[in-house]
Design goal:
Elements: H1 9-15, H2 36-39, H3 43-60, H4 64-71, E1 76-78, H5 84-91, H6 99-121, H7 129-154, H8 177-194, H9 209-222, H10 226-238, E2 263-267, H11 281-285, E3 299-301, H12 303-306, E4 322-323, E5 327-328, E6 334-335, E7 347-348, H13 357-361, E8 372-376, H14 377-389, H15 399-409, H16 420-434, H17 441-448, H18 451-465, H19 484-489
Antiparallel strand pairs: 1-3, 2-8, 4-7, 5-6
Length: about 500
């Protein structure tokens, strides 16, 4: 089934909350100008407004997010062709002026304001109450996702629960973390009851009750609320709606994006149906000169990470997440490259769908249809395993059984009889191997409190594979700096400790 494109130009404009100023000689109530007052009238308007929230979510994951979640971790090494920004992020020598911080911050608040406009205005529309409930649930889910990304990155952030209609409404201070998390949890709990378990036709790809549960489990896990994390992840597991795919590489097949049994929530890109807004992570990560179109070779898998795929049978490692030169592709072509150099580690393959014609023959900037996966079932299993091991009640089987489902799919031996500490290490290792370049690593390192140690190890490794790239150093804190431009225009904000 073809994936839906959850966007609408009309919804995009409406959700922005456009306001117009009128001179005295103009009609004080124009009917031919798109404003919130003359837009939110029908159920079609409500759907378009929610589609506008999804549209902004798409852009929030397009580039800046994974500069933070993956480039700025021990998984990825910046190759020579990467720009200076990529090297600063990879080397963890960025400052508050670096653009990815501003991109993540600004995109999140655009999502939040669009969602707030929906939540403020759609309840007054005369329409099918079932559809209204669903649309409000979608808005709450997307607002929760945006706030969750914000607090994980920056800690205390301004809490805006209603549509901002003037610049004065943006002169706000940081809200304590607990209050922001309270809204996130409340939004997701409401979304669980408001959203359907599945969709059909053109609506496939919208947020579901299962997506809200999976995200809520991750929120509880991040808060180290092991009891609720295990309980909610267990609910996803016992629902029977999700299962691991047999073949790890099938997770990233374009033909079955969103509709496969492991997918829970994805950011939907389609460079053909939606020209100019296709994904770019495939092009960034493939080695330079890879046949079939654009391939930039901007990064490698860190040699130390590649070595952690300790079994040749691990289907997530060589020829799945990474490749070494020469590589024989699905077309039978022997591919060789020298850029990026092998000393920096093997090249990425993960997002290339070798069964897709466009991926293999006509790759080009913003033309890719490779989705960004926010939540998938393997994540739920590993969250459950972690939460139960840390003290949460086992409501859907043992922690060991959940972890071993992921390990068996990868073709490696199950674990048995491990101590709590050894099991913790095993879960952390498999999270790393399972989710390379999937927007997970920085957040895992931060919530585990080992980000400093990981960057120290990475900068030490760089002394061997890329002498002179950067000195050995750690990180200022487990949070990122607030974007300096935001502090410049809003003096009610304060910077995180350790950052300039």
């Amino acid at each position: 089934m073809r994936r839906t494109k959850l966007l609408s130009v009309l919804g995009l404009l409406a959700a922005l909350g456009f306001a117009t100023s009128c001179d005295s000689f103009l009609d004080p109530a124009p009917s031919d100008v798109l404003t919130p007052e003359n837009f939110y009238k029908t159920s079609a308007d409500a759907v378009a407004a929610v589609n506008g929230v999804y549209e902004q979510v798409k852009w929030s994951y397009w580039l800046g997010f994974w500069y933070i979640s993956d480039i700025a971790t021990d998984d990825i090494i910046a190759a020579p062709r990467f720009g200076s920004d990529g090297h600063r992020m990879s080397n963890y020598i960025f400052t508050s002026t670096e653009w990815p911080m501003g991109d993540v911050w600004g995109s999140a608040y655009r999502i939040i304001n669009r969602a707030n406009a929906v939540l403020d205005r759609v309840p007054a529309i005369t329409m099918d109450p079932v559809l209204r409930t669903r649309l409000l649930g979608e808005a709450r889910f997307l607002r929760a996702l945006a706030y969750f990304n914000l607090v994980r990155c920056f800690g205390d952030v301004p809490l805006l629960e209603h549509e901002v209609k003037s610049l004065n409404g943006l002169k706000v201070s940081r809200t304590p973390l607990d209050q922001v998390y309270a809204l996130i949890v409340s939004d997701l709990q409401e979304a669980i009851t408001a959203l359907p378990a599945s969709y059909s036709g053109a609506d496939i790809g919208r947020a579901t009750s299962g997506a809200a549960r999976a995200l809520l489990a991750k929120v509880y896990l991040t808060r180290q609320d092991w009891t609720n994390a295990a309980r909610v992840a267990g609910q996803v597991m016992t629902s029977g709606r999700d299962s691991l795919l047999t073949n790890y590489k099938d997770i990233f097949k374009i033909a079955t994006e969103i509709t496969n049994s492991e997918s829970i929530f994805e950011i939907n890109y389609d460079g053909l149906l939606d020209p100019g807004s296709g994904s770019v992570h495939t092009l960034f990560s493939l080695p330079s000169g890879f046949p079939g179109g654009d391939a930039y070779g901007l990064m490698t898998v860190a040699p130390s990470l590649a070595a952690l795929f300790d079994s040749a049978a691990d289907t997530r490692g060589r020829n799945a997440t990474f490749i070494k030169s020469p590589y024989v592709d699905a077309l039978g072509d022997s591919v060789k490259w020298a850029d990026p150099p092998a000393k920096l580690g093997p090249a990425f393959l993960k997002y290339l769908d070798e069964t897709d014609f466009q991926n293999m023959h006509t790759r080009a900037w913003v033309k890719q249809s490779n989705n960004w996966i926010v939540l998938r079932y393997a994540d739920v299993l590993l969250m459950y395993a972690e939460a139960v091991n840390e003290g949460g009640a086992a409501t859907a089987g043992s922690a060991e059984a959940a972890l071993n489902l992921v390990r068996r799919r990868a073709g490696i031996l199950p674990v048995s009889g491990l101590s709590q500490a050894a099991f913790r290490d095993s879960v952390r290792l498999d999270r790393r191997r399972e989710f390379v370049f999937e927007g997970q690593r920085w957040f895992d390192l931060s919530r585990w409190g080992i980000l400093n140690a990981a960057i120290l190890a990475k900068t030490t490794e760089l002394q061997t594979v890329a002498p002179g790239e950067t000195t050995v150093h750690g990180v200022p804190s487990n949070l990122l700096p607030l974007p300096q431009p935001e502090l410049d225009i809003n003096h009610n904000l304060t910077q995180n400790p350790g950052w300039q």
